[in-house]
């Protein structure tokens, strides 16, 4: 950056007084090339007029004014305003507009980091989360109502049901899930039997491990674990499939053709899962009992015949029915949440991944909440 050939004093010259105000005459070229001299002139004038009171700056002598010169003139005015009133006169409208813009920039409050208040931030986040949860709940309830209306309309015209799609989704959600559900249920039965045997051995009641395994698996753990596995496996698949169709605008194409996406995409998945999950839960319960029987034989030398006889004595058929009665409700919730989140996808692959994760979390949360409510309800009826 080059300085000006003119001395700093040449830019601001004392010009006497006007009434009670001291007068400064601004002269020369207030431009970028003269920045060094302008800066010195402003500092010198501000120091020389300390205690002067009102100041009038006659600016008609300025030959050229650019942004740098306007900023220096505004800085001079700001320094002198701390001592008394300041008037800048003699500028044409264009230069006056440039000076006004510079003064506005000079007076703008500095951008600083906001003061952090941890307690207020926590309360604010909690409030935002509560409002978001309320909106999400209302939207989900509206979606459930829309599906119920579509299901009722389809029930009046069963020919509209897509049987091939239902069979296809039953295969994907039920038959293809048998290996993982069976393996995990078998291992859970083994763990329950081992842990129960270790505790009951202290009281000489090892045989009651059959009661523990039978009641816990048939009533609660079998259907609950199966629902959680299905939520992570099939619920996420529903969201990803429908979400990808949303990104590719296939759902919009369906609506353009006069097709109902709920009838085409949601109902077959929901009906298939409602039919498949009770069967999967029964299979999971059987595998869990098999795992418990294997562990009981290994740890307690309880034969399979003894295990089954004790199981028949300790666990009535109603216990299994109580567990299986929850499966269709869990299946409907998993399918509805998965399809709902899939239809909410908008525009990007990131949205697909984010809502797929959300679908699994919400499905598992609702399944556990409903299981707790079922437990309270069944206990109140003595079941």
Radius of gyration: 40 Å
Tell me the strand order in the biggest sheet.
1-2-3-4
Question: Residue-averaged pLDDT, rounded?
Answer: 83
Overall number of structural domains: 2
Instruction: Tell me the quaternary state.
Output: single chain
Question: Which consecutive residue ranges, at least 5 long each, have pLDDT under 50?
Answer: none
Profile the largest sheet: 4 strands, mixed
Q: Strand percentage, roughly? A: 5-15%
Helix and strand element order: EEHEHEHHHHHHHHHH
* N-end to C-end Cα span: 89 Å
Which structural class do you get from the secondary structure elements?
Answer: alpha/beta
Structural features, described:
This protein folds into 2 domains: 8-107, 2-Layer Sandwich (Transcription Regulator spoIIAA); 142-380, no CATH class. It is 71% helix and 8% strand. It is built from 12 helices and 4 strands. The radius of gyration is 40 Å and the shape is elongated. The relative contact order is 0.09.
């Amino acid at each position: 950056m080059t300085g000006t050939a003119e001395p700093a004093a040449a830019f601001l010259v004392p010009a006497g007084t006007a009434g009670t105000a001291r007068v400064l005459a601004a002269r020369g070229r207030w431009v970028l090339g003269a920045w060094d001299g302008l800066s010195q002139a402003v500092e010198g004038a501000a120091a020389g007029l300390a205690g002067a009171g009102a100041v009038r700056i006659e600016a008609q002598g300025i030959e050229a004014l650019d942004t740098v010169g306007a900023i220096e003139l505004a800085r001079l005015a700001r320094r002198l305003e701390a001592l008394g009133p300041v008037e800048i006169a003699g500028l044409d409208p264009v230069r006056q507009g440039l000076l006004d813009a510079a003064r506005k920039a000079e007076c703008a409050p500095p951008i600083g980091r906001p003061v952090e208040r941890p307690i207020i931030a926590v309360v604010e986040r909690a409030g935002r989360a509560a409002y978001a949860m309320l909106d999400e709940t209302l939207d989900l309830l509206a979606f459930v109502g829309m599906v119920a209306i579509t299901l009722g309309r389809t029930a009046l015209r069963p020919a509209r049901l897509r049987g091939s799609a239902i069979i296809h989704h039953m295969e994907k959600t039920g038959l293809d899930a048998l290996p993982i559900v069976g393996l995990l249920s078998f291992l859970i039965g083994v763990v329950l039997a081992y842990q129960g045997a270790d505790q009951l051995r202290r009281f000489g009641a090892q045989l009651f491990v059959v009661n523990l395994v039978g009641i816990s698996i048939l009533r609660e753990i079998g259907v609950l674990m199966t629902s959680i596995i299905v939520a992570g496996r099939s619920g996420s698949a529903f969201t990803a499939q429908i979400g990808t169709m949303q990104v590719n605008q296939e759902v919009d194409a369906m609506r353009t053709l006069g097709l109902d996406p709920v009838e085409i995409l949601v109902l077959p998945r929901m009906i298939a899962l409602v039919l498949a999950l009770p069967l999967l839960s029964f299979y999971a319960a059987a595998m869990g009992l098999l795992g418990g029987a294997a562990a009981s034989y290994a740890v307690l030398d309880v034969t399979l015949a003894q295990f089954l006889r004790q199981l028949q004595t300790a666990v009535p058929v109603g216990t299994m029915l109580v567990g299986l009665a929850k499966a269709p409700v869990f299946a409907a919730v998993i399918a509805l949440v998965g399809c709902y989140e899939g239809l909410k996808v908008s525009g990007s692959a990131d949205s697909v991944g984010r809502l797929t994760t959300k679908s699994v979390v919400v499905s598992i949360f609702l399944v556990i909440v409903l299981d707790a409510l079922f437990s309270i309800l069944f206990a109140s009826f003595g079941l």
